[in-house]
Amino acid sequence: MKVDVLLGLQWGDEGKGKVVDVLTPRYDVVTRFQGGPNAGHTLEFNGEKYVLRSIPSGIFQGGKVNIIGNGVVLDPLLFKQEAEALAASGHNLKERLYISKKAHLILPTHRMLDAAYEAAKGAGKIGTTGKGIGPTYTDKVSRNGVRVGDVLHNFQEKYTAAKAKHDAILRSLNYEYNITDLEKEWFDAVEYLKSFTLIDSEHVINNYLIEGKSVLAEGAQGTMLDIDFGSYPFVTSSNTICAGACTGMGVAPGNIGEVYGIFKAYCTRVGSGPFPTELFDETGEELCVKGHEFGSVTGRKRRCGWIDLVALKYAVMINGVTKLIMMKSDVMDEFETIKACVAYDMNGEEVTGFPFEIDDTVKPVYVELPGWKTDMTKMQSEDEFPEEFNAYLSFLEDELGVPIKIVSVGPDRDQTIERYTED
Predict the structure, then answer these.
(1) What angle do the packed helices 180-193 and 76-88 form, to 10 degrees?
(2) Catalytic residue at 13?
(3) Phi-psi region of 358 (alpha: psi -120 to 50; beta: other; left: phi over 0)
(4) Which DSSP letter does residue 386 get?
(5) Three-state DSSP class for residue 417
(6) Which of the following is catalytic: 41, 104, 110, 166?
(7) Is residue 52 within a helix (H) or strand (E), and if so which, with residue range?
């Protein structure tokens, strides 16, 4: 067996949580391989809405094993809040959720560092959610991190040493803070964390593959926020691309199977950073309102624009995408005209390859396609798709060179249409 990977191809918020929940009945194991609790996956079914921050979306499927991999950074306090909310809704986490000992812990002082660093940047701030994720990954790379497995071995000593280093940095930044109450809650949450099964996830996952178990790896954020290949420096602190699944789980590249790439029929972005197709007019506002484009964890309004095929083709290449999944097509049901960016105008030169760096001077080059002007939210199969929508799908497939296997026509689990079912 191989690990199938599902990840976002844009700037995050593509709807990965819903798709994972749709796909999980076909898998035995679902894992998260990177990211932290800033990324909220929203799932809706049976009239209920759930937001997951660190827990894999397969938790709603009975009998599935869910694993938080070593590439994730975990805040015990936020994890406890999330897990207790799910337990209250009737989901037995402790039987179905395992946590890698090699995942790094977000400490209370990491949150303080996050806020202090953002304040120091002034107008050049990244737009972080302030959850302490960036500083935690910094400690990981600089070999100063505290890991989940450390809660079982000399934890207080390791915590105190890490905190002392953070205190020194915060003093140098003249950042005033008080974490007394937060720290108490955090240590209570660490005790709660210890009640879960902590594992050497790389051994467990590879053994599942040897046993013939099917594994789905779930990414957070999106390709264009990757620390290496995203729109640096306005990126996240981990590798959001397919290669991150190998390092975030301990799985060899040869054990990667299908790569599902998720994208919206348009494009959104949260926080600072360049966004060539961003719309500042009524169309942008309409996309935001109809698409409910507000962060599931932060509530922050997302920036909206037309689909960017320069960035999307780049993401398909970097990830080795084998199947595409298009979300939120219903949001554009009433538009007369649909636009798609097929190139960038950079100082008068037309560029079709994603460049080393983009900024606010980049201008999108658009093609226009007719809208479908049809309510697609009740459709059950691709046979019901209007001609104009099929033309949009064909255009995207020609541009991207990969089939669009799944189309979402609404937020509910049932509003998901599979194409090419004869395959």
Answers:
(1) 60
(2) yes
(3) beta
(4) -
(5) strand
(6) 41
(7) strand 48-52
245 near 219, Cβ under 8 Å? yes
CB of 18 within 8 A of CB of 44? yes
Cis ω for the linkage preceding 386 (within 30 of 0)? no
From CA 310, how far away is CA 342, in angstroms rounded?
A: 6
Give the Cα separation of 41 and 52 in Å (integer): 5
| Known catalytic residue at 166 | no
Phi, psi of 267 (to 5 degrees): -145, 145
In terms of Cβ atoms closer than 10 Å to its own Cβ (0-12, 13-18, 19+), residue 118 is middle
**pLDDT score, position 39:** 57
- Please give the backbone phi and psi of residue 346, each rounded to the nearest 5 degrees, phi first: -120, 100
304, 331 Cβ separation under 8 angstroms: no
Tens digits of residue pLDDT in 329-347: 999 999 999 999 999 999 9
The helix, strand and coil proportions of the chain, stated in percent and rounded to the nearest 5, come to: 40, 25, 40
Annotated active-site residue in 13, 139, 150, 330: 13
Check: CB of residue 71 under 8 Å from CB of residue 45. Answer: no
Confirm if 106 and 38 have CB atoms less than 8 A apart.
Answer: no
Which strand (E) or helix (H) includes residue 215? strand 215-218
Q: Is 250 left (phi over 0), alpha (psi -120 to 50) or beta?
A: left
Residue pointed to by tokens 């983009």: 358
Q: What is the pLDDT of residues 40-53, one digit of tens each?
A: 666 666 677 777 88
User: Who contacts 135 (Cβ-Cβ below 8 Å, separation ≥6)?
Assistant: 110, 113, 114, 117, 166
